């Protein structure tokens, strides 16, 4: 956002990312929303988390897919010309040519997924810590930062050609680099829409995966909730995606028909019913923390309004307005409670 000042900050109360991949933060020193300066060079950086004390940012540091040039060969049809698609290739590619062996050679590109690489940025010092994950494809992985900033969770899928991939969840100790396997399943496919979220006490995490529903003949999101000490699968919520934790025992979910809060200890669900005063429904949940749920008015509004409510959709409070929609939002511990 060109209208915002650009500067470094020592601690952020709030971190958001816009569609152009700019990272905006609310500076804890004065509360001002600024464009974060000092990000190390990274291709397509994606904001994945903010530590509870607001001093560490987690970002992806690789593209999900890269394209490498190659020389392609196509055998020409046995039928005589014209060959419209061959003529199109010859017209757009100056290196294309028809060979004596009745083939067409031309420039092409092949896509591959690079290995996952993450950046843990220390805001007070501006120093990045790079986390490398060989053989973990960036385009089939998710990550999330623990509230204390000491552990990164990664969920990743093998590149099997089967209907279902092997999905694994690992925990990585930031200080030592030690990686501990937490959970594996071969009954899910893969979704990379939502970063992994941690409960505020660090005892649980939630990740959004996909599975195939025979009845509807379609893919659907499902949320798994894991115990971070034992790897036990605590809850599974089908037809849902997760958006953060309003409390240590509750995770906020977007369901097929409505938004709701799931108590991961009891399995009880509470619907979130919210409408603006002008009766326009919410444009969607962005995040949840401190007993509050952040929503936006909807897409294609200028400016976009963001507010937060309690876990039932009541006690509506304004948060901020923006000329752009945000694709990700994370808050430091207690920030939404102070804003209530």
Automatic annotation (TrEMBL):
The highest taxon in the source lineage is Bacteria
InterPro entries recorded = 6-blade_b-propeller_TolB-like
Q: What protein name does the entry list?
A: WD40 repeat domain-containing protein
The uppermost taxa in this organism's lineage are:
Bacteria, Bacillati, Actinomycetota, Actinomycetes, Streptosporangiales
């Amino acid at each position: 956002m060109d209208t915002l000042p650009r500067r470094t900050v020592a601690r952020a109360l709030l971190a958001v990312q816009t569609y152009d991949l700019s990272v905006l933060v609310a500076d804890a020193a004065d509360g001002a929303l600024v464009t974060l300066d000092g990000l190390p060079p990274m291709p397509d950086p994606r904001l994945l988390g903010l530590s509870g004390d607001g001093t560490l940012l987690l970002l992806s540091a690789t593209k999900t897919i890269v394209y490498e040039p190659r020389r392609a060969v196509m055998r020409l049809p046995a039928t005589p010309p014209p060959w419209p698609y061959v003529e199109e290739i010859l017209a757009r590619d100056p290196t294309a040519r028809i060979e004596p062996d009745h083939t067409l050679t031309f420039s092409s590109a092949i896509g591959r997924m690079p290995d996952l690489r993450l950046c843990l940025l220390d805001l007070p010092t501006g120093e990045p810590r790079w986390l490398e994950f060989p053989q973990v494809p960036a385009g089939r992985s998710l990550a999330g930062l623990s509230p204390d900033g000491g552990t990164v969770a990664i969920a990743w899928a093998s590149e099997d050609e089967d209907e279902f991939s092997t999905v694994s969840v690992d925990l990585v100790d930031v200080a030592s680099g030690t990686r501990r396997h937490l959970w594996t399943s071969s009954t899910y496919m893969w979704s990379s829409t939502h970063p992994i979220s941690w409960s505020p006490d660090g005892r649980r995490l939630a990740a959004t995966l996909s599975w195939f529903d025979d009845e509807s003949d379609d893919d659907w999101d499902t949320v798994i909730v894991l115990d971070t000490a034992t790897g036990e699968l605590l809850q599974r919520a089908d037809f849902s995606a997760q958006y953060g934790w309003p409390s240590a025992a509750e995770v906020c979910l977007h369901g097929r028909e409505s938004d709701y809060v799931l108590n991961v200890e009891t399995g009880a669900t509470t619907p979130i019913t919210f409408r603006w005063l002008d009766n326009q429904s919410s444009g969607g949940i962005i995040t949840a923390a401190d007993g509050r749920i952040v929503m936006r008015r909807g897409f294609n509004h200028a400016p976009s309004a963001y507010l937060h409510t309690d876990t039932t959709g009541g006690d509506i409070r304004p948060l901020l307005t923006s000329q752009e929609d945000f694709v990700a939002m994370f808050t430091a511990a207690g920030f939404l409670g102070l804003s209530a």
